[in-house]
Amino acid sequence: MMSAKKISGTAVYALAFGLFLGLCIWKFGNPVILDSKIPTPVSASDFLNDPWPTRWANWIFLPLAGLGAVLVFQGQSAPSRRPNGERAGARGFEFHNRWLWLLPLLWFGWQLFSATKTLDASLTAPTLWQFFGCVACFFLGRHVLGSDRMLRWLLIGVLAAFVFCLVRAVDQRIFEFPQNRQNLLAGEKAGWTNYPPEMIQDLKRENVIITTNGVAVANPAILAKFAKGRVNGTLVYPNALAGAILLLFPVSLVFAFHSAKTLRPFLRASVIGLTLFLGIAGFFWTGSKLGWLIALAVGGVCLFRLPWPARLKWAALMIVLLVGLGIFAVRFHNYFAAGATSAGARFDYWRAAAQTAMGHPLLGTGPGTFQRPYAQLKSPASEMARLTHNDYLEQFSDSGIPGGIFYAAWIVLALVIIGRRVWKSGSPLTFAIFIGLLGWFVQGLGEFSLYVPALAWTAFALLGCSLGRLGVGSEY
Hints:
Layout: H1 4-27, H2 44-49, H3 55-73, H4 89-115, H5 121-143, H6 148-189, H7 197-205, E1 209-212, E2 215-218, H8 220-228, H9 238-259, H10 265-286, H11 289-303, H12 310-331, H13 333-337, H14 341-359, H15 371-377, H16 391-422, H17 428-443, H18 453-468
Antiparallel strand pairs: 1-2
C-alpha cells in the first residue's frame, strides 16, 4: 500500500498537470505550425492578453513528463484493473492493452521515420514536438492520472481554464467585438487622429489597418469578423472553441450538478444555470456548422443510454433531430445561400491530401507539411490552406499510408473499448468524458485540432485517463 506521502505527491502532480493543461487552453491555442508567426510577448500586458509561442509549451511540458515517468517507475502509477464481467476474458483484455501500447508508439515512430524525408523541416520540427506531447499525455493519463482521485485533481485546472475561455467568448460577443468594430469605424472616419501613433503602428503591423489607394482604412475582413460575432475565446478560431466545448462541456455539466448538490436551491440553480448558459451560448456563437451536427449526433447517443422504453427513445431522437436540424437550417441559411464556400474549400483540401497520399504512399511529405504540396495542387479558386482540416486524412498525406492507419486504428480502438465498457455501467463522469472524446475525435474529420496543444494534449490526457479508470469504481 502506498504511503500517505506518496499519494499526496501524486495528487500534487495531477493538480500541476491539470494546471498546465489549463495554461495550454489559456495561452497555447494556436496550431504549432504557426509558431513562427506568434510574436514573443515583451510587456506585462502582452504576457497577460496575448497568446504565447507554442514552443514555450514544450519546455514547460518536458519536466512534467519526466516527473510523470519517475512516478511510474516508482510504482505510483494508477491501478490497472480488468473491468468486472470482461467478456473477452484475460486474453482479450491483454490483447487490447498490448495494442493500446503499440499503436501510439508505432504512430509516433512512423512520424520520426517520415520526418527524415520531409519537404520542410521548419514545419516538421514543431509538429513532432506536438505529436510527442499527444503520446506522452496519453500514457501519463493512462498510467499516472487514471484514477478517480487523480482525475478530479487534474480537472481543477482544466475546467477552470475552460470556464475562463467561455467567459472570454461571451465577452467577445457582447462587448469586445461590437466595441472594437465601433472604434475602428470611428477611427477611420476621424482619419485615425483619435489613436496614439504607437497603437496605429501596432494595428498596421497586425493588418487591422491597411492602406488602400494611399488611404489608411480599417481592414474590411476584420470589420466583417466583428460584425459576424463568431467567438473564439482563447483559441485560434471559432471552430477550435466549438471543439473545446464538445470535449469539455459534458464533463463540466457533471461537475456542476455534482458540486451543487450540497448548496441551497437558489445557489444550486445558479451554478447549473450559469454552466448551461456559458456552454450553450458559447457554442451557439461559435457559428460552427460541423460542431452543431456533431452535437446533435452526440445528443442522440446520450438519449439511447437513458432507461426509457425503446419507442420513447426513438421518438425523443426524432424530436431532437427535427428541432436541431430546423435551427441549423435557419441559423445557416445565408451561408448555404452564398454557396457554402468553406465546405467547398474543405473538399479541395481533402482532394489534394488524398492525391498527395497516393503520390507519397510510404512516408508522405513530412509531418505538418500539407501546405507545401497543396500550394502546387490547389484549385485556382480555393484559398491557400496550411492544414488539411481533417486530422485523419492529414496523417495519410503527411506521413504516408502506414502513419494514417496507425493513427486511425489507435483512436478507433480506444474509443470502441471505452464506449463498450461505459455504455451500461459507467458512472456519469466516465460517460461524460467518453461523450466529450467521441465528439472531439469525430470533429477531427473536418478540423485540425490535433495540431493545437490546448485541444490535443487535453484530449489525449483524458483518453488515457478514461482507459486508466476502466474497472476502477467511481465515487459519483
